[in-house]
């Protein structure tokens, strides 16, 4: 082979003993890295040579030059001295950019009957980028609601779709059908910390990164190990996670929206009108106490989900459809982006006060509520951001007392359930 001919090419693949090339994890992530702005200064972007399967995935990246090879000899043939080998050989093909025209499909919120309060909270969460905790008895529909949350979010941009697909590719979970579908990752509470936040050698992304640009749904939140929940605090603030192992350090994106659910007590029926709770007050407070104050502080919206009795379920009409809610969400997000260049959840420090200005009446209302409920400064800021989102959904330029009053409702301490 003429080594000079290799210049400008990158190769990845699993080599079998017979010389066949097999797909590898992360082809899309590699392709994305090769097409990084840093490389765009070069005269031409590096060309990527990949096995069948990996090549199609990598070709999702716009402008990437991707070749697919079946066998090591197909590759070698291209780099023999002399004139370029014929491209027509079946084993070596330039892959056309992978087309991504299909519309993502999500389960519809129309499937969920009743639950006006929870639906409203999810709409606010989607509009402002806020996290939400649903509390209710088993069977009240918390999981059904959570599985329909991603559909309320705006359509992914190509950049977001690429980021999301690249992480899925690294995790070995990418499939073309899921292109531009916002993921909903729902790890079980018995999942290890590594499975949840990432790790291993070489480091692999965890569920929080696989949920990047999508939704992380944690059902039965208090059942997760404390250490796992505490590990969520960093990515909830920063949108990424750094994994350090003895020899390696890796950073994965983790900009997800957290949707959490829990029963109000160990038996699940505290406050339910369908069945009596059998738990002692002590059991209830120990159960709810598994969630640390700082973690709860970081969840913007707390909402109760009541179970419907069988006859209520039959007599309630279908709920509003996802598409209608999403169009309001998109408008509210657009207002925030136009005003401040970010979602309301992403506001920090002085920008919060600047963008969420209150008139006298609403400031007085918030101060009174905060004093009565013993809120931290962080809680007040979170409440302000939620109030701003409620105002955006209402198309209001300023945050008014009704918006603040609704936002306050969503930050009641858990103990208020008693
Ligand atoms: Zn109970």
Give an account of the 3D structure.
By secondary structure, this protein is an alpha/beta fold. The protein has 3 domains: 3-95, no CATH class; 109-313, 3-Layer(aba) Sandwich (Rossmann fold), CATH 3.40.50.300; 339-417, Orthogonal Bundle (Helicase, Ruva Protein, domain 3), CATH 1.10.8. The chain is 39% helix and 13% strand. The chain has 19 helices and 15 strands. Strands 8-11-14-7-15 form a 5-stranded parallel sheet. It has a 4-stranded mixed sheet with strand order 1-4-5-6, with helices on both faces. Strand 4, helix 3 (54-58) and strand 5 (65-69) form a beta-alpha-beta unit. Helix 5 packs across helix 18 and helix 17 (360-373) runs parallel beside helix 19. It is elongated. The termini are far apart. The mean pLDDT is 89. The site of zinc ion (ZN) has 8 residues, from loops.
CATH class of the largest domain: Alpha Beta
Bound molecules: zinc ion
The percent range for strand residues is 5-15%
What is the radius of gyration computed over CA atoms, rounded to a whole number of angstroms? 25 Å
CATH superfamily of the largest domain: P-loop containing nucleotide triphosphate hydrolases
Average pLDDT confidence is: 89
Helix proportion range: 25-40%
How would a crystallographer describe the biggest sheet? Answer: 5 strands, parallel
- The end-to-end distance, rounded to whole angstroms, is 77 Å
Strand-pairing-aware structural class: alpha/beta
- Strand arrangement within the widest β-sheet reads 8-11-14-7-15
Low-confidence stretches: none
CATH architecture of the largest domain: 3-Layer(aba) Sandwich
> What spatial form do the alpha-carbon principal axes imply?
elongated
Reported by name, the CATH topology of the largest domain is Rossmann fold
Tally of contiguous helical segments: 19
The number of distinct structural domains comes to 3
Number of strands: 15
């Amino acid at each position: 082979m003429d080594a000079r001919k290799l210049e400008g090419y990158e190769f990845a693949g699993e080599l079998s003993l017979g010389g066949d090339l097999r797909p590898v994890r992360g082809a899309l992530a590699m392709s994305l890295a090769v097409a990084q702005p840093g490389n765009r200064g070069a005269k031409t972007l590096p060309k990527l040579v990949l096995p069948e399967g990996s090549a199609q995935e990598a070709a999702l990246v716009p402008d990437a030059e991707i070749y697919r090879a079946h066998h090591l000899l197909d590759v070698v043939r291209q780099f023999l001295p002399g004139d370029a080998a014929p491209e027509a050989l079946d084993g070596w093909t330039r892959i056309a950019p992978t087309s991504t025209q299909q519309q993502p499909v999500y389960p519809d919120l129309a499937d969920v009957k009743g639950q006006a309060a929870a639906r409203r909270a999810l709409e606010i969460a989607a509009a402002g980028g806020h996290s939400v905790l649903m509390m209710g008895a088993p069977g009240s529909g918390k999981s059904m609601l959570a599985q329909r949350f991603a559909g309320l979010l705006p359509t992914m941009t190509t950049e977001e779709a690429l980021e999301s697909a690249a992480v899925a590719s690294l995790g070995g979970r990418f499939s073309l059908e899921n292109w531009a579908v916002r993921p909903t990752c729902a790890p079980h509470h018995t999942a290890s910390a590594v499975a949840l936040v990432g790790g291993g050698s070489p480091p692999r992304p965890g569920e929080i990164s696989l949920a990047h640009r999508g939704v992380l749904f944690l059902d039965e939140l208090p059942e997760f190990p404390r250490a796992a929940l505490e590990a969520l605090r960093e990515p909830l603030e920063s949108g990424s996670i750094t994994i350090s192992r003895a020899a390696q350090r890796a950073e994965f994106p983790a900009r997800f929206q957290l949707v959490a659910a829990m029963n109000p007590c160990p038996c699940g029926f505290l406050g339910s009108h369908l069945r009596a709770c059998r738990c002692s007050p002590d059991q209830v407070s120990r159960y709810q106490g598994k969630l640390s104050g700082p973690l709860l502080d970081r969840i913007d919206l707390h909402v109760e989900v009541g179970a419907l009795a069988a006859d209520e379920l039959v007599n309630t009409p279908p709920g509003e459809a996802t598409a209608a809610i999403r169009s309001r969400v998109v408008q509210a997000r657009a207002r925030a982006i136009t005003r401040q260049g970010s979602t309301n959840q992403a506001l920090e420090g002085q920008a919060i006060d600047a963008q969420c200005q209150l008139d006298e009446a609403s400031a007085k209302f918030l101060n009174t509520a905060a004093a009565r409920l013993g809120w931290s400064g962080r809680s007040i800021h979170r409440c302000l951001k939620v109030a701003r989102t409620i105002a955006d959904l209402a198309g209001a330029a300023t945050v008014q007392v009704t918006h603040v009053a609704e936002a306050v409702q969503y930050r009641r301490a858990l103990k208020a359930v008693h």
